Amino acid sequence: MEIEKIEISKSIIIKQGEEIERDQLRVKRKTLQAVLEQCQRALELLQTTDYEENLNGDVDLHEEEVDEEGSSSHCDNDDDDAETTQLCNLLKSRVDSPDFLEKLGSIHLSVPQLNVVTDTMYTHGSRRR
Question: By C-alpha distance, which of 37, 49, 28 is closest to 74?
């Protein structure tokens, strides 16, 4: 059985005179899929939490289980290997960076409101076609 590897290459991007260096990391497809599944579970949890927050008021999003080593349990499943944990930690460090949060904020501001209902969309409770 051949193991397929996926490479995240190192590149240097020059943005407005600022040099940004990207890391290189080779991971197995299985590892990437495991991390993706963990990200999807985290997104589902956030959506559920957001829904509950809307119903119940404030919810503390920082209430996550922490094991004895002080790391989050979101990326520490029994079937994970060291490579999955390494990729998970890299993703966490990138997500926690101020640059990422700034980009996320600017993306959020630029997304149009898609669920705005206008008079042209509905007439007397029925859809126009």
Answer: 37
Other beta carbons less than 10 A from residue 111's beta carbon: 7
Q: Per DSSP, which regions of 1-128 are E strands?
A: 5-8, 12-15, 18-21, 25-28, 122-123, 126-127
Go through 81-109 and write b for each residue having 16 or more CB atoms within 10 A of its CB, e for each that does not. Answer: eebbbebbeeeeeeeeeeeeeeeeeeeee
Q: How far, in Å, CA of 118 to CA of 129, rounded?
A: 14
Burial of residue 34 (CB within 10 Å: 0-12, 13-18, 19+) is buried
Phi, psi of 88 (to 5 degrees): -60, -45
Domain coordinates of the chain in residue numbers?
Answer: 5-111
Token pair belonging to 64: 């996550």
Query: Whole-model pTM above 0.85?
Result: no
Rounded CA-CA distance 98/105 in Å is 10
pLDDT, tens only, 89-114: 888 888 788 877 777 677 655 555 55
